[in-house]
Amino acid sequence: APLVESGGDSVQAGGSLKLSCRASGSTYRACMAWFRQAPGKEREGVASIDGEEIGRTRYADSVKGRFTITLDNAKNTLYLQMNSLKPEDTAMYYCAADRINWWLLPKYDYWGQGTQVTVSS
Fold first, then answer.
1. N- or C-end of the chain: fewer Cβ atoms within 10 A?
2. Beta bridge partners of 93
3. What is the pLDDT along the chain (121 residues), one digit of tens a residue?
4. Interacting residues of 61 by C-beta distance below 8 A, sequence separation 6+
5. What pLDDT shows up at residue 67?
6. Pick from 50, 47, 44, 43: which is nearest to 34 by CA?
7. Residue 53: predicted pLDDT
8. Rounded distance, CA 73 to CA 57, Å?
9. How far is residue 64's CA from residue 77's CA, in Å, rounded to a whole number?
């Protein structure tokens, strides 16, 4: 699999989690992103990062100031640090990558299998 996520868990509101997404060496990643999808809802872009200009990031308004996306090119790994988690953050979280910079649009070619995050109140 080109992308493999890990780190999902069940936590209480206010807690923190760090998700990881390991990319295979052959996965082209001009841009990488995290998406989430809750039951009955559309897939939502959470955070994205430019793989070639790592300082360029974008966040959904709902997670700004709480989530941080980082990329370690040496380890081929994308991270999502999630702090001050809320019950509404509960969802399956997916990693995505592509040679085109789609930012928070769900048009990426490569997707992981997802990792579940559950936040209880």
1. C
2. 36, 115
3. 789 999 999 999 999 999 999 998 766 667 899 999 999 999 999 999 998 776 799 999 999 999 999 998 888 899 999 999 999 999 999 999 998 889 999 999 999 999 999 999 9
4. none
5. 98
6. 47
7. 77
8. 15
9. 21
Q: Residue 45, SS3?
A: strand
- Ranges of beta strands (E only) in 1-121 are 3-6, 10-12, 17-23, 31-37, 44-50, 57-59, 67-72, 77-82, 91-98, 110-111, 115-120
Cα distance between residue 62 and residue 86, in whole Å: 10
CA angle 41, 46, 51 (to 5 degrees): 140
Residue 9, both tokens: 């868990």
Relative to beta strand 10-12, strand 115-120 is parallel
Strands 91-98 and 115-120: antiparallel
